[in-house]
């Protein structure tokens, strides 16, 4: 089954690939690896802002991380022309804006990790880091970057 068919079956519509907000490119391909720059949490109503442990809970944070995942997929699709070229999700690095006493960053980043497995199946299982940040660009709750292996 193609990834486009899988997305339709999952009722997932990818957003437009966001333009870079500063002096960098949204993705770089080298050899058979595609590095996608960090994607910040954004949805149909704009940026998803907040700090976990202050004004957001884990469920809201996981939804923000899922939004980052959708943007990562949109960037990969723009880079490759088709998500069918993804051989594997290699690694995700997730940054979670959170208070010093908040320790559930892994559960927040699961919002993106779970999406990758939903879309790619076993090829979506990946290495990962989930770290706390005192603040993220534009006040967003989550930022995630990805490395994909290309077939």
TrEMBL record:
A Pfam family of this chain:
Ribonuc_L-PSP
Q: Which InterPro entries match?
A: Endoribo_LPSP/chorism_mut-like, RutC-like_sf, YjgF/YER057c/UK114
Superkingdom of this protein's organism: Bacteria
| Name of the featured protein | Endoribonuclease
| SUPFAM superfamilies from the UniProt entry | YjgF-like (SSF55298)
